[in-house]
Structures are given as C-alpha cells and as structure tokens.
C-alpha cells in the first residue's frame, strides 16, 4: 500500500511554540492546517500548509480549520491543541473578564476543535490528539499566582485522561505535554509518531 501523507491541525500557530510546531511537522512530511487569530500575518501558505485566521474560542474557527483539512488534504491524522493564554495575578484580583477569556481560549478552544476532529478520526479509527498544558497545573510554584489559569490547564489534563480511555478502542490516542518551549517542539512530533496514550506528561 502506498504511503499516504498525513495531516495535522495546529492551533495557536502564530506564536513561538506554534510556529515551531508547524515547521517541525512540515519537516516530518505532514500536511498542516495552522490556525490562530492572525496566522496569515505570521506564516506563509504553501501547497502543504493551509492557514486559517480566527479566534479558537469560537466554534466557526474550529469548523473552518477542520473543513480546510478535509477539503485540501482529505484527512486529519493529528491535532495539536497549542492555543492557550496565561494570566497571573493574586486570586482575589481575577475578574469575570479574566475567567471568561481563559475559559474561551483554553477550554472552549479545546472543546470545539477536538470534538469536530474526533468525529473525522472515528471514520478511519485512528488519530492522535496532543494538548499543550502547563506544569503549574500539578506543581504550583510560590510567587507564581496563576490559580485561575491553572483551573483551565488542569481541566485539560483531566479531559485528556478521560478521552484516552473513552477512545482507546477506536484507535485514537490522547496525550498532554507540558509547556516548555524547545521541549514541546521536540516532544510533540515524537509523541504522535511513538506509542502510548493518555498523558504524556514530560516535565524538565
């Protein structure tokens, strides 16, 4: 059987980690759909790279990214949930606006695009979903006041474990990788190409 080129969707693709992930996946021979608020201003499209501007916390952005992957490349083999925001301040200073922004990007962003992607992966009984999380969710550091931000990152850790079990028999793997810039760029492609499921929580 001929080798079929694989396709990855990467969110938060215009930032340092996101752009690095796009480059890494392209070098691995993947087609890539990259999305972020202004990804077309940060990256240059090519035959193997489709760019989708939009707020990942909006359902229509997720739909556009998934539709672009199917339209241009016919499949989705990997999803990297890299989009995320971090706000640090004392717990009593967090506002409802802070909370809503964190939930929109970090949780709704995950929910919308992962749900649509998994529906596509179920058709072929295979796929990989990796979410970029944060070490602070499990290992708080004195002086780094990010409690509300870590509510959302901790939620990603929990849902990753749950989905890994829910979809194990369907051939879809779920992993979480903690946020260390160079480590993430190196680790995420390895996670997708390697073995294992649930939480790939590598911390250094």
Overall 3D geometry?
Answer: globular
**Termini, distance in Å?**
40 Å
Quickly count the helices: 6
Percent strand equals: 15-25%
Helix content: 40-55%
Could you give the count of β-strands? Answer: 6
Low-confidence runs (pLDDT<50, min 5 residues)? 181-185, 194-204
Please, what is the average pLDDT?
89
Main β sheet profile: 6 strands, parallel
User: Which strand order spans the largest sheet, edge to edge or round the barrel?
Assistant: 3-2-1-4-5-6
Secondary-structure element sequence? EHEHEHEHEHEH
Secondary-structure content class: alpha/beta
Radius of gyration, CA atoms, in whole angstroms: 16 Å
List keywords for this structure.
single chain, 204 residues, alpha/beta, six-stranded parallel beta sheet, 6 helices, 6 strands
Explain this structure:
The protein is an alpha/beta fold and about 200 residues long. Helix content is about 45%, strand content about 15%. The protein has helices spanning about 15-25, 40, 60-75, 95-125, 145-165, 180-195, and strands at about 5-10, 30-35, 50-55, 80, 125-135, 170-180. It has a 6-stranded parallel sheet with strand order 3-2-1-4-5-6, with helices on both faces. Helix 1 links the parallel strand 1 (about 5-10) and strand 2. Helix 1 (about 15-25) runs parallel beside helix 6. It is globular.
């Amino acid at each position: 059987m001929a080798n079929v080129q694989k396709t990855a969707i990467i969110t938060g693709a215009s930032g340092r980690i996101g752009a690095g992930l796009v480059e890494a996946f392209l070098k691995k021979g993947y087609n890539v759909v990259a999305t972020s608020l202004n990804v077309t201003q940060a990256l240059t499209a090519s035959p193997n790279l489709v760019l989708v501007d939009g707020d990942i916390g909006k359902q229509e952005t997720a739909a556009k990214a998934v539709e672009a992957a199917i339209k241009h490349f016919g499949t989705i083999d990997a999803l990297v949930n890299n989009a995320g925001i971090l706000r640090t301040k004392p717990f009593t200073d967090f506002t409802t606006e802070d909370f809503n922004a964190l939930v929109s990007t970090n949780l709704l962003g995950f929910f919308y695009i992962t749900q649509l992607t998994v529906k596509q992966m179920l058709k072929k009984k295979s796929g990989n979903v990796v979410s970029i999380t944060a070490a602070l969710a499990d290992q708080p550091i004195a002086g780094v006041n990010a409690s509300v931000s870590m509510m959302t990152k901790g939620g990603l850790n929990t849902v990753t474990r749950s989905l890994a079990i829910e979809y194990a028999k369907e051939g879809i793997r779920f992993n979480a990788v903690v946020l260390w810039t160079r480590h993430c760029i190196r680790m995420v492609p390895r996670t997708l190409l390697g073995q294992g499921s649930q939480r790939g929580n590598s911390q250094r």
